[in-house]
Amino acid sequence: MITSLNELKELADKKKCTDDNSRQELRVCMGSSCMSLGSAELGKSLQDELQSRELNDRYKIKSVGCSGLCANGTLVSHCNGNESTLYEKITTSDAKDLVDSIQNGGLLKDKMCDIAQPFFAKQTKIVLENAGMIDPDEIEDYIAHGGYIALFKALDEMTPKEVIEEVKISALRGRGGGGYPAGIKWESVSKVISEQKYIICNGDEGDPGAFMDRAVMESDPHRVLEGMAIAGYACGANKGYIYVRAEYPLAVEKLSRAIKQATKLGILGENIAHSNFSFSIEIRLGAGAFVCGEATALIASVEGNRGNPRQKPPHLTDYGLWGKPTVLNNVETLANIAPIIKNGGAWYKNIGTQNSSGTKVFALTGHIKNTGLVEVPMGTTLRELIYEIGGGIPDGKRFKAIQSGGPSGGCIPEELLDLHVDYESLKNAGSIMGSGGLIVIDDSSNMVEIARFFMDFCRSESCGKCTPCRVGTTELTLLLDKFIKKEATKSDFELLKEMCEVLKSASLCGLGQTAPNPVLSTIKYFESEYLEGIGDD
Amino acid sequence: MIREKVRVKTFKINGVDVTGQSNQTILEVARDNGIEIPTLCHLEGLSCVGSCRMCIVEIKGSREPTPACTAKIKEGIEVTTNSSKIEATRKMILSMMFSERTHTCSTCVANGDCELQNKSVELELQHSQVPYLNKRFEIDASHKNFVNDPNRCILCTRCIRVCDEIEGAHALDLAGRGLSTRIIHDMDEPWADSQSCTSCGKCVYVCPTGALYEKDVSEEEVIKKRGIILELVKNRGKY
């Protein structure tokens, strides 16, 4: 049991010492992406290789989370004290060569990954600082890297009010898409008088092309728990739920283990660090409905009901889970909390832009060389993200558009590439920040088909509660089909725009209200492609 | 949640000063003052879900319209129920309801006593503005007294609410999602096999269309008793 900050620091030192004194590490990425390339087998081959050469006392295999460059997996990092070398595209057949080279103190040159390249050099890691470094299955490793210090600091030295103040100073905004200031949300819940309050972590990442939260939950689950516990302390909640989609089995596994470990050490549970504060966390699985990422639908689902949204107000801060005041934060938002408490809100505020502080994790996918996860300060331009960090468009194709914010977002054309990415700039461009999925589209794609893809996604994910979304998404999908088949008429184009407006203004929840965004933004920037779909009439 | 004291609030609907109690909705106060706002899923005596979106109104200063049936009144707000934009949006939504399934009035038992039909007269909707989808569903005529024809259902969920809130049986619920959403009995069993249905018929009486009806009636012969729910609630002293 850990009951004070000193004991926590002792544990950290102990872990560091044993690690320092012992062996060099071969860190093998065990994130979902690399796992699908066989990183688990690779880890075993490397282990066998070490075993057969009786090198286990000098080297150890460490399973770590995502290092970000998913395109070049499996990534293996060789760490000798402070020196580390990153290898890319390692498969089981490379295990022997890799062990050969490190045993001889050399380098496996043709597999080396240049960590000075912009993909790594241009990133600022706060949320993902531990990803790829620590073993997510070991709480001691998290603690050795400064974990849970923020929670103990908050409990020891700060009042709940001061914690909220610090988060307010940081100006951290919700990373789930809405961008509502986290500190203000916490403050409203803290002010409501209620015997029972809840903290919910939204890990129902459902946007096509988004996998930021998955990486955080898989690579550094304790960071999420720490953020939730601090939120609980600040708002007066003693119970937390993590809502994770069942499609993320690895994240569920890591989080479950993390909760067990933290509870065993007394970091979660009754009277944490001899204080009056108690906090426990449970996991709830989502059954695959996209709409359950919407706050009120998520709560219905946690309660065991059909995952349908309801009309707001009342807002969750007044009437949330089982009718009690509830804070609902996204995984990435909560992952930012511990560093903010540790380093102060002002430190965080200094990163990023005026209205959007801090960093944002983006999932780069689509027609781009370096697909993977990147964390950059707010205000980074799209051009930097695509051409420097992302490595540009492959196969000699040209850039056409970038889609941000998933099915609720929009497409941004080439002329806006110098846009400094933050909540406001993306909104002004007709898109949204969303959860952070960035899908790069090259000139071989038809924008009407892109719009149709997202509309069809919303059609199949509409819960069916309100009329505009239930019927409108189907009508719009069929209408877009006519444009793709070049059978549309001029009046179809008018109807398309009219229906988009109706969905936007009259749908019950965010899913329906934002479903037309991909269509509206492609009409805004690529109208000619719609006009090409209009036949002679 | 803190229980607030009921206070009197004054605000404007369509430029007219009105007053109501703070626990009332915009719809209630509007109707108290003789201002009509079209509704479909709403039924007095049942909880409000705001799902049909017929009753959307504009509140000055809000970005998007809001359903009057769920929005509590606030001091000083300015509500518009009949702007041309709102009316056009309602017409489009009503069109969507007509296009979604199969609403052929001339062969419907509820012809003449159908709220969907009445709404089209009220909003002067002469033809659907969107293409017909006519999604088809199987009819459940297994019950000895009643029929469930999902092809005429507009998913207002009044039947679910009345069964849950008034009868206390919760024999009905939703299955599927999006366009495939439908009303089911128990775990999607034929109505006749439902263990929890008490055959009280309230679901049939509150149904706004001919989706739920009594057997042995022909076109135009359905008699709905939609006001019965408010009477029941009043008799129980809950209103």
How are the elements arranged and paired?
The complex is a heterodimer of chains A (537) and B (239).
Chain A: H1 5-21, E1 24-29, H2 32-36, H3 39-52, E2 59-64, E3 76-80, E4 83-87, H4 95-103, H5 118-121, H6 139-144, H7 149-157, H8 160-170, H9 182-191, E5 198-203, H10 212-219, H11 221-235, E6 239-245, H12 249-264, E7 280-286, H13 295-302, E8 326-330, H14 331-335, H15 337-343, H16 345-349, E9 359-366, E10 372-377, H17 382-389, E11 399-404, E12 410-413, H18 423-428, E13 437-442, H19 447-461, H20 467-484, H21 490-506, H22 510-514, H23 517-532
Parallel strand pairs in A: 1-2, 5-6, 5-8, 6-7, 9-13
Antiparallel strand pairs in A: 1-3, 3-4, 9-10, 11-12, 11-13
Helix pairs in contact in A: 3-4, 7-11, 7-15, 8-9, 8-11, 10-11, 10-12, 19-20, 19-23, 20-21, 21-23
Chain B: E1 8-13, E2 16-21, H1 26-32, E3 56-59, E4 66-67, E5 78-80, H2 84-100, H3 115-122, E6 146-148, H4 158-167, E7 172-175, E8 182-185, H5 202-206, E9 212-214, H6 228-235
Parallel strand pairs in B: 1-5
Antiparallel strand pairs in B: 1-2, 3-4, 3-5, 6-9, 7-8
Brief summary of the model shown:
The complex is a heterodimer of chains A (537) and B (239). Chain A is an alpha/beta fold and 537 residues long.
Structure description:
The complex is a heterodimer of chains A (537) and B (239). Chain A folds into 4 domains: 23-64 and 76-112, 3-Layer(aba) Sandwich (Glutaredoxin); 139-349, Rossmann fold; 359-442, Ubiquitin-like (UB roll) (Roll); 447-532, NADH-ubiquinone oxidoreductase 51kDa subunit, iron-sulphur binding domain (de novo design (two linked rop proteins), Up-down Bundle). Helices cover 44% and strands 14% of the residues of chain A. Chain A has helices at residues 5-21, 32-36, 39-52, 95-103, 118-121, 139-144, 149-157, 160-170, 182-191, 212-219, 221-235, 249-264, 295-302, 331-335, 337-343, 345-349, 382-389, 423-428, 447-461, 467-484, 490-506, 510-514, 517-532, and strands at residues 24-29, 59-64, 76-80, 83-87, 198-203, 239-245, 280-286, 326-330, 359-366, 372-377, 399-404, 410-413, 437-442. In chain A, the strands form 3 sheets. A 5-stranded mixed β-sheet of chain A has the order 10-9-13-11-12. Chain A has a 4-stranded mixed β-sheet with strand order 2-1-3-4, with helices on one face. In chain A, strands 7-6-5-8 form a 4-stranded parallel β-sheet, with helices on both faces. In chain A, α7 (149-157) runs parallel beside α11 (221-235), α19 (447-461) runs antiparallel to α20 and α21 packs antiparallel against α23 (517-532). Chain A starts with a helix and ends in a 5-residue tail after the last helix. The model of chain A has no long low-confidence stretch (mean pLDDT 95). Chain B has 239 residues and is α+β, with helices and mostly antiparallel strands. Chain B folds into 2 domains: 8-82, Ubiquitin-like (UB roll); 89-235, Alpha-Beta Plaits. Chain B is built from 6 helices and 9 strands; from the N terminus they run ββαβββααβαββαβα. Chain B has a 5-stranded mixed β-sheet, with helices on one face. A two-stranded antiparallel ribbon of chain B has the order 6-9. A two-stranded antiparallel ribbon of chain B has the order 7-8.
